[in-house]
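re: that chain from earlier
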Amino acid sequence: MTDQLPARAPEVNADTEPFWRGTSEGRLMLQRCDSCATYIWYPRGFCPDCGGRSTSWEQAAGTGTVYSFTVTRRGQGRWRDAGPYVMAYVELLEGPRMLTNIVDCSVDDVHIGQRVTVVFHDTGEGSALPRFRPLGGDPS
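^ sequence. v structure.
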């Protein structure tokens, strides 16, 4: 099980503040381009698809699938005692891929295409880290 991962508080800036405020409220927020409607991850001041500079924040569904992953069996620094743990790219329902951890399951049970849902791990400093846990069943 990977339920004791470190949860270091992020550095917050003007581009990321709405995202981190959302995590502290248990909501996964994504930017969406006002010009082309592309969902954007990671937070930034422009759309990477069309270059538009007008975006809005929307609450994401908080679900997705494991796109790719790796198991780290021995970490370093503050992660030294956390292993084994899973680092994964999760493809969100809205389209972007987010680098995150898969938690609340055996590392041996994680697989590409696995359906996951967001959980928030409190940093103790006004924000929470979005991580994902498996949902029951896989799409056919």
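Helices lie at 17-24.
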